[in-house]
């Protein structure tokens, strides 16, 4: 559950920053 929460936090932060990070995170975690 902790890892899931961290994934959501990182994804949200990446979206807020508005960088290519969201795509990278989605590729890594999905």
Automatic annotation (TrEMBL):
Superkingdom as given in the UniProt entry: Bacteria
Protein name (record): Uncharacterized protein
Gene source species: Ktedonobacter racemifer DSM 44963
């Amino acid at each position: 559950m902790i890892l899931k929460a961290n994934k959501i936090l990182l994804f949200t932060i990446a979206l807020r920053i508005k960088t290519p990070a969201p795509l990278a995170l989605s590729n890594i975690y999905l």
